[in-house]
Amino acid sequence: MIDSGAGGSGVRRLLVNGEALRLEIEPPPTGGGPKYEPFTSEQAREWLLPQIRSTRADIHMLSDSFRGPDRVYVEAKLIPNYLAPTYYPEALLGFIGAVPVGARADVGQLRTASKVRQSGTRRLILSLDDAALERLEKLVDAPGADRSAQQAFAQIRRLEEVSPPTVSTVLRIGSDHDAAGEQISLWESVLHPRAVRSGEPMPIDDNGLERWVSLVESRGGAVHREFVRRVGGLTFVPIRAASTQVSVLAQFNPLRVLRPMPAIRPRPSFGLRSGSPVTPPAARGAVSDVTTVAVFDGGVHTPDSSGLFPIPVLDLTPEEAEADALDHGTGVTGAVMYGLLKSGEQAPQPPLPVESFRIMPPPYDPGDLDGYWVLDQIKETLAEDRHKLVNLSLGPTLAVEDDMEPNRWTAELDHLAWERDIVFVVAAGNYGNEDQATGLHRVQVPADMANAVSVGACDVPAPDRPWARAPYSSMGPGRPGSRTQPLGVQFGGVDGRLFDVLRVDGSFLEASGTSFSAPVVTHALADLTTRLPRVNSSVLRAFAVHFTERHRAYKARRDELGFGRLPLSFADALDCTPDEVHVLFVDQIARGDTLGYQLPLPRSFPGPVKMSITLAYASPVEPTQPTEYTSASLELTLRPNRNMFRFSPPSGSSDKPRTVDLTSTDARTLLVSGWTSGQEPVTKTLSSSASLNEADLRDAGKWETLRHHRVNFPAGEVDDARIEVRYVARRAGALDGSPTEVPFAILVTVGDPTTSGTLYDEVTTQFAALRPVQRVAGRVRLRGSRSSAWY
Q1: Domains of the chain (ranges plus CATH)?
Q2: Taken in order 715, 716, 721, 726, is the CA torsion positive or negative?
Q3: Whole-model pTM?
Q4: Is the pLDDT of residue 420 over 80?
């Protein structure tokens, strides 16, 4: 049943169907004023020409064993002023015949008319032949008079440097390995794409791969051919080589990166805990079977007669089960099924069916390639498309790094999340106490995913206060497209208040770690799935962020806590007070479109207003472009007052622009005096940055797949407010015109700080298209019927 409103029951439920409030709008004009050009092309020629000649000489010196069969790779560093997709040097690259197949993160000097400062930028990785390098040199030296050459020459001002790859760039031996003085034998090599076809990067061909294999073997190494994997145009190749040989191997021109192979993270240690056992749920089975939750871990101890784990346990590894792996897997699975339990409680009915996949220990000794094997099992299992919610309390021992080189775990799982609409809930890692100067304290792969929910740990569960990050909990920032990492925190146990880890007989072990905070969040999202009429990955991620509890020092602690402390349950979030309304919008948008939605505020409501807005979506990703990792940006604009417009003075006037009510006498006076009004009402800034520079916009979240904003308005400032969503797509860093659609979810909360007690009822009266969510705790799908819940 659907609750038809507040009625006489006094129950006020979260409202869905916000997409019915869509408005017909004219997309506002885009673009700004004239672009500030820090250098002329003639100035750029002075530094580029020697670099290009040196690069040609270096490439000419490469022997066949250190280069691809017919292509070479060079790097072109962009001046930070030209990071935006609109400034991509497409004419230049097309003229010389260079194919952009990737990029690296770098830093450079951002120049404005008044100052110079260091800023992030990127190095384009270009695949080209020897003739293209010759054309580049001739163009820079003497551009010629035809239009194509002139357009190409005009874009050389956007380049700071042209050079071949260097060993120091390719060979990545972390400071932790340096300090340990290890003799590393197993390495992960990553090879560039060979070319791009129909906009998609194509992996290096067999001839190029065989040249790499031959070079490795000629230096006394070996290649694990059975584990060669191709991801997004990149080719991941595990090799064995002596540490003394890798600096030579790193000179292979098609090689993007060579780094030590990370191992799977160690499991936390357990202690015994006394107390009364948990009793099984009163009802058998799950509340709903809309989808099934997958847990990839150490399996579950053989169930006894307690009835707490009546679930399928599938062995993906042929190895014998290990006691500590089973303890870990049982505890994680128990938290997914039941959430946070206390001694002596009766376990609640699991919200969704759960399947446990035993993948630990992997079938390899000494286990160096565990990560590749484990990831393969996860991919193959999820290809069956039966699981839309996945818990990962494991992963490689690898912190996200500022160089942001592509990682196979992150790229593969982000692609799965986008293609199959899966929500991955990922433990952030237990390395928060590690050295911050070297970055070892940061979130562990794959918690840096752009399309997932990454979970850190805090020291107490809600509603206890004060609360803080658990000292071991790994910290942000994450990679571009997901800088706010972890997404949030949940109780994971600390010394003095450890996490109660459920055992198969209902008793407990004690431990701490993000391994256990993550499945508590998975449980909460599974429960939420049963309480909503329809749901998808964007809806769940929007709820996770929108209803986090902000820390009192949330701005200073963003890298520690993400958006805040995640709820133990979303049941209370589905109820509203008389002075607030939660509204869910679910829609999809085509590339280049702008959609507008009226916000649920009654016209008679005078304000003041408190407003929270959360936008969530999944994006395609480009692992070859770590600085441009997410391909989709949904730009969110808030226009709080339909009558407030920006007026610009007549040409030649020294007056400054003004914001004026279009219905006022002042507006009429300005129009008579030659002032012009804007096309659309003025916007309220949601970004944390007022800068229009691309690097600053990225830091402020332009390409993030999750945004959360809280704004307040005094009385009289809000009238017929609306939000707009605009979809911008990029590919390889340039604007992308291919037709795609991106589903998204928006959660909006509007509140009346004066507590007049009428806001919710006025909203439901005026906006009849909005529907309260179901009041029942869940749904059970009839046998043979088709679920419409996950869409």
Answers
A1: 41-164 (no CATH), 173-260 (3.30.70), 271-572 (3.40.50.200), 590-757 (no CATH)
A2: negative
A3: 0.93
A4: yes
